[in-house]
């Protein structure tokens, strides 16, 4: 995780929610065999509940209620409606310095919720296409990369790649410059002001832009990232596959209390500083819990779990997997960037019809 100590400027995430949608909250059960979990249509389902009164606090007062399913639906539908009011107004410029004989790189600027101007790197392979695409929605780091560090540049010869800086990241840090650590709690006092409402909108706008490219094969679109990738796939159509590494929004309030490790330690830091806001923080986080989005994801999904025994290992993610309707594969980390990265690259290639994956891997990963 990149550490950025630049002072943050307050950024509005958009207007408060107020309409409803038909986001489903029912999930079919899944079965699990080893590290691979595949759902099946069993006819039985259960609601993913966001409601929990919980115990009373130390003063004897009842805890603030978590948002109802209806409130969550309204919140996200309103976010989508607000985003739709702002035309993307894309501006695209070729970047010769980062172009190669096998791919041309462009800088793309888009307008998102706010309005807020975003920046992304769009790489198009040489040739006629159509090409499969990998979309990297905003990550939890300050620096925007063309492709993730350690990925072979030759990935750009087979896939369209689009890497987007969300609000606060470099190249999209005017007027808001995010701090890392710190972004996870920006505006977290209320769901309407939480910065991740805007960041999720940014990710949705980026996918919509990518889908307009004529070089794209719309049947092969992979989202790769953290929780934001999975949330994006749930809220808007277009992704055919998702590779997600949960880190921010899975049982956040519960798991943060069990770890001193960032980024979840940001929640602990914030609550220690503002103890009277603890219930408001928990309520905001309830709008973002991945279990509520899981039933709406239709894309085949690879979940990258933590190593066995860690906070987000395969066993910990079982409720998330159970809630998903789409085919799910769970890869438990082997604590090796090489082994985990190779697994993900081969998983994507197999589903996108890339038969020469060895040729686009980092040289030290090749057989």
Structural class: alpha/beta
Amount of helix? 10-25%
Mean pLDDT: 87
Tell how many strands the DSSP assignment holds: 13
Give the radius of gyration. 20 Å
Uncertain residue segments? 1-10, 15-62
- Going by CATH, what is the homologous superfamily? Alpha/Beta hydrolase fold, catalytic domain
- CATH architect. name: 3-Layer(aba) Sandwich
Global geometry:
globular
Most strands sheet: 11 strands, mixed
Span between N and C termini?
Answer: 30 Å
Write down the domain tally.
1
Highest-level CATH class: Alpha Beta
CATH topology, which one? Rossmann fold
Strand content of the residues, in percent? 15-25%
Number of helices: 9
Give the strand order of the largest sheet, numbering strands 1, 2, ... along the chain. Answer: 2-3-13-12-11-10-8-9-7-6-5
Q: What string gives the helices and strands in order?
A: EEEEHEEEEEHEHEHHHHEHEH
Structure description:
- The chain is of the alpha/beta class.
- It has a single domain, classed as Rossmann fold (3-Layer(aba) Sandwich), CATH 3.40.50.
- The protein contains nine helices and 13 strands.
- The chain has helices at about 70-85, 195-210, 225-235, 250-255, 265-275, 280-285, 290-295, 320-325, 335-350; strands at about 25-30, 30-35, 35-40, 45, 90-95, 105-110, 115-125, 130-135, 160-165, 215-225, 240-245, 300-305, 330.
- The protein starts with about 25 loop residues before the first strand and ends in a 15-residue tail after the last helix.
């Amino acid at each position: 995780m990149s550490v950025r100590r630049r002072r943050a400027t307050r950024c509005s995430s958009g207007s408060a929610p107020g309409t409803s949608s038909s986001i489903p909250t029912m999930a079919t059960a899944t079965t699990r065999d080893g590290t691979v979990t595949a759902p099946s249509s069993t006819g039985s389902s259960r609601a993913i509940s966001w409601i929990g009164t919980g115990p009373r606090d130390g003063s004897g007062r009842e805890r603030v209620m978590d948002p109802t399913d209806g409130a969550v639906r309204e919140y996200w539908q309103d976010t989508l409606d607000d985003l739709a009011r702002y035309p993307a107004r894309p501006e695209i410029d070729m970047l010769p310095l980062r172009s190669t004989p096998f791919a041309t790189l462009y800088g793309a600027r888009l307008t998102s919720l706010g309005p807020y101007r975003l920046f992304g790197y769009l790489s198009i392979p040489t040739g006629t296409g159509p090409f499969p695409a990998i979309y990297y929605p905003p990550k939890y780091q300050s620096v925007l990369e063309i492709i993730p560090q350690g990925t072979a540049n030759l990935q750009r010869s087979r896939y369209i790649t689009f890497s987007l800086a969300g609000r606060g990241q470099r190249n999209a840090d005017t007027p808001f410059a995010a701090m890392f650590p710190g972004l996870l709690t920006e505006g977290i006092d209320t769901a309407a002001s939480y910065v991740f409402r805007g960041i999720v909108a940014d990710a949705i706008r980026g996918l919509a832009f990518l889908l307009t490219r004529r070089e794209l094969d719309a049947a092969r679109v992979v989202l790769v990232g953290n929780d934001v990738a999975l949330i994006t796939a749930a809220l808007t159509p277009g992704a055919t596959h998702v590779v997600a590494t949960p880190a921010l929004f899975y049982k956040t309030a519960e798991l943060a209390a069990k770890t001193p490790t960032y980024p979840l330690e940001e929640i602990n830091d914030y609550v220690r500083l503002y103890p009277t806001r603890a219930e408001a923080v928990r309520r905001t986080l309830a709008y973002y819990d991945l279990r509520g989005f899981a039933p709406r994801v239709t894309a085949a999904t690879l979940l990258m779990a933590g190593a066995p025994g860690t906070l987000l290992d395969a066993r910990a993610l079982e409720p998330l997997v159970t809630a998903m309707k789409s085919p799910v594969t769970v890869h438990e980390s082997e604590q090796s960037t090489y082994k985990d990265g190779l697994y993900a690259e081969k998983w994507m290639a197999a589903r996108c019809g890339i038969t020469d994956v060895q040729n686009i891997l980092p040289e030290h990963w090749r057989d």
